[in-house]
Amino acid sequence: MMQMKKKRSGFSVHFALLILQAFFVTNVVGQTYDQLVEFADQKMQERDYFYAIKNYERAMKIDSNSVEILWKYAEALRHYKNYPKAELYYSKVYSRENARIYNRSVFWLATMQQYNGKYDEALETWKTAKKVYKKDRDSYEYLKSKQMIVSCLWARRAVRDTSDYIVEPLPQPVNTKNAEFAGTIHNNKLYFSSLKADSINFSEEVYTADYSIQIYSADQEDSVFNNVMLEKDVAKKGWNSANGSFSPDGKRFYFSRCNSAYECKIFVGKVEGDRITDIDSLGEIINEPGYISTMPHCTNVGEYEVLFFASNINFNYGGLDIWYSVIKDGNQYMLPKSLGSDINTPDDEICPFYDTIENRLYFSSSWFPGFGGQDIFYVQNYNFTFKDPVNLGLPINSSKNDIYYIIDQENDVSYFSSNREGVQYAKNPTCCSDIFTARLPKEPDPPDRFESLADLNKKLPVRLYFHNDRPDPDTRDTIASITYMQSYYNYLKLKKKYKKEYSSGLSGDDAEEAKEDIDDFFVEYVQQGVIDLEEFLRLLVIELEKGYEIEMSIQGFASPLAKTDYNVPLTKRRISSLINYLREYQGGVLRPYLDGTAQNGGRLTFVGNPYGEYTADQLISDNPNDAKNSIFSRKAGMERRIEIQSVSLITKDSSYAKMDFLKQTHDFGASKKGDILTWEFKFTNTGKETLEVTDLVESTDHLTYELSQSVFEPGESGSILLTWDTSEASGITYCRLTIHANIKGGKRELTLTSEVH
Q1: C-alpha–C-alpha distance, residues 145 and 106, integer Å
Q2: Terminal-to-terminal C-alpha distance of the chain
Q3: Which of 117, 197, 706, 720 could make a disulfide contact with 399, Cβ separation 3.0–4.6 Å?
Q4: What is the model's pTM?
Q5: CA–CA separation, 441 vs 444, rounded Å?
């Protein structure tokens, strides 16, 4: 939860602090290492992380080689939310003891890397963590490591996308150098929780045992909040009060009240004008003895009045889960029901908020794919069935903790709390949360067609993977009989066989590591490819529904196990399997665009480049008797794929010229070293503007070209004759010519392939 700290002002407090500081400095000079560590440990127990850090630092000046002090220092930094420095010291700990002494050193190192937005580094560290915890595959650490691998893969792509929301922190007097948490909007007032002291002077930071979090309100006028007032009716000395929520009729006020150990219960009071009276805790149906119940949100869900809340009551999935209770007659609370395993996870799910307009439940979680820490998600309500959480994305979410999302429907603005960079702070840039607003621009400029596809291209490339010689083995057909998704699910069923075959001949840790490599490959590449495909297709449908004609470029690849004349048709089948899936996607929503029968004029066409094994890693085994490496290895698996490379607009009235080739690749098959290979590529300018070829770039000095001319009027055709000297080529190889011209995308590529002996 939140650290306990208090700020006071006034000469007497400030003077007393100076005396205490002088006394402390005088006495620490003679303190031993053990005394400093003991004092710092005590401060950690008191959640006084600032002074714990200071004393660990003094101890480190005496002995900086102790792994124990490095670990304790890293732990204090993490609790103080100094993520960059915590990452550094967890790295120091793990590099010395490899999680043998401090089992979670690699766990927290990966977590801090993720919090710091270093998704590539975090991905590799989570893979290491998964191997560290593999002996207990049911443990939280192992399951979390697996889940965060998926999360980092998701985040690496998601950071490319930013929604149009404008996110800004609320100014003072709401946000301060302490922490503020969004609560609810009612009668044009913002009710929020804060660590504010009674003083208006926040220049000093003071820790006291009786410090508490309380609920405040601020009047809203023209989107500006003023007149911040403590809600004295719900405040109670020595207790933390937070998470305010009004009943739909405005007659009841729900909130959390927690003791100094953050053992929380939900309370309710009657609303009488500006007063909240008759405050009492809810019964044991909600506040089950021995468990935490907190973060109430009271709302209407259809014809029912419902209280959503977070709790760790019995039969939870781990940490705090989200539950709900139907309320009858304003005071009868039905037995709570969990939202189930589609929402609740081994981590905390917190801060429920229900949008009655969109019928969506918003919440925060650190388990589902996100940017780091707690992210905000929403789920649609299907008759009290909630599943498939959607991440709100950037800039609402960040790599830090993003929580307490609420919507002010009347003013079309959302509020949430975050400890991202940009908050007000005294010592640590991410120590404390502030309240942020998120709103769309009042009159956003609609993107033009090319800008829309630029956003879609951010999702590319999408890479999809196949089992050896699939789909449709032992054939030279170029058309697949099944869809990609059928091939994909058949591929997943083979994962156990891959692990067995790839680890054959190995034992102990070597065998386990080989199995982990296969696990990682399926998660990081095979399964992630389908996740990327579904998100790409969702956005593709949106663009086609605008009536655009879109051309999709797909490349196909194969491992070098089979011969060239077999692999090229195989890659064509793989491309064909994707097109088959597109025809069936969401009950055939893309079919009219594929057939050219869409009423809005939209159309989807393809450019396929079946490279076969020409771009494959030539170190991969091509020995059919070495199935372990030629079929079941990670390297071989990564070569058997197709890639959606790009999408571009086909526009009838485009200001661009168009350079349409009959084909852009040619395979010579087998050839002898030293052969001079030639091929002529023909094209036509099908645009309405003059085509100008500005540059041609060869991939090798052994490739030359002859361009028939450099300027082509609309409707005029031309050719490029390529000559390839294979005297320096060997094995399965290719060469490429890149054409630069005034066409959409700016360039085209021509490719020659051959198996040179």
Answers
A1: 10
A2: 68
A3: 117
A4: 0.77
A5: 5
Which residues are within 8 A (CB) of 275 and not within 5 positions of it... i.e. 6 or more apart? 233
Least confident of 27-41, 250-264, 520-534: 27-41
Buried b (16+ CB within 10 A) or exposed e, 646-658: bbbbbbeebebbb
Write the single-letter amino acid at 571.
T
Cβ proximity of 306 and 300 under 8 Å:
yes
Residue 81: per-residue pLDDT: 94
What dihedral angle (degrees, nearest 10) is formed by the CA atoms of 43, 44, 47, 51?
50
Using the predicted structure, report yes or no on whether residue 665 has a pLDDT greater than 90: no
Burial class (CB in 10 A: 0-12, 13-18, 19+), 684: middle
Q: Exposed, middle or buried: residue 691 (CB in 10 Å: 0-12, 13-18, 19+)?
A: buried
Q: Is the Cβ–Cβ distance between 468 and 562 less than 8 Å?
A: no
Q: Are 295 and 267 in contact, with CB atoms under 8 Å apart?
A: no
Q: Which of 637, 548, 537 is nearest to 585 (CA)?
A: 537
pLDDT per residue as tens digits for the range 102-126: 999 999 999 999 999 999 999 999 9
Question: Tell me, what's the pLDDT at 27?
Answer: 47
Q: Is residue 65 helix, strand or coil?
A: coil
Residue 28 confidence class, pLDDT cut points 50, 70, 90: very low
**The amino acid at 674:** G
Amino acid letter, 45: Q
Is the pLDDT confidence value at 694 over 60? yes
**Could you give the CA distance from residue 716 to residue 687 in angstroms, rounded to a whole number?**
10
User: In whole angstroms, what separates CA 172 from the centre of its chain?
Assistant: 31
Distances (CA, A) of 410 to 35, 187, 435, 575, 591: 58, 10, 19, 50, 41
Q: Strand pairing partners for 711?
A: 692
Cα–Cα distances in Å, from 486 out to 53, 461, 470, 471? 56, 21, 11, 9
Count the helices and strands in the chain (H runs, E runs): 17, 34
- Res. 602: pLDDT tops 70: yes
3-state secondary structure of 113: helix
Q: How far apart are CA 192 and CA 402, in angstroms?
A: 15
Q: Name beta bridge partners: 653.
A: none
* pLDDT tens readout for residues 401-445: 999 999 998 889 999 999 999 999 888 899 899 999 999 887 655
Q: Are 25 and 71 in contact (CB under 8 A)?
A: no
Contact at 8 Å (CB) between 343 and 386?
yes
Averaged pLDDT score across all residues of the chain:
87
Nearest to 530 by CA among 627, 462, 583, 607: 462
Report yes or no: 671 and 677 within 8 Å, Cβ to Cβ. Answer: yes
- Note whether 276 and 245 are within 8 A (CB): no
Binned at pLDDT 50, 70 and 90, residue 697 comes out as: very high
Query: Locate tokens 């596809």: which residue?
Result: 453
3-class SS shares of the chain: helix, strand, coil, % to 5? 30, 30, 40
Share of the chain above pLDDT 70, in %: 88
- DSSP code per residue over 306-334: EEEEEE--SS-SSSSEEEEEEEETTTEEP
DSSP 144-158: HHHHHHHHHHHHHHH
361-399 pLDDT tens trace: 999 999 999 999 999 999 999 989 999 999 999 999 999
- Contact (Cβ atoms closer than 8 angstroms) between residue 358 and residue 405: no
Domains of the chain: 31-158 (1.25.40.10), 166-439 (2.115.10.20), 446-650 (no CATH), 655-757 (2.60.40.10)
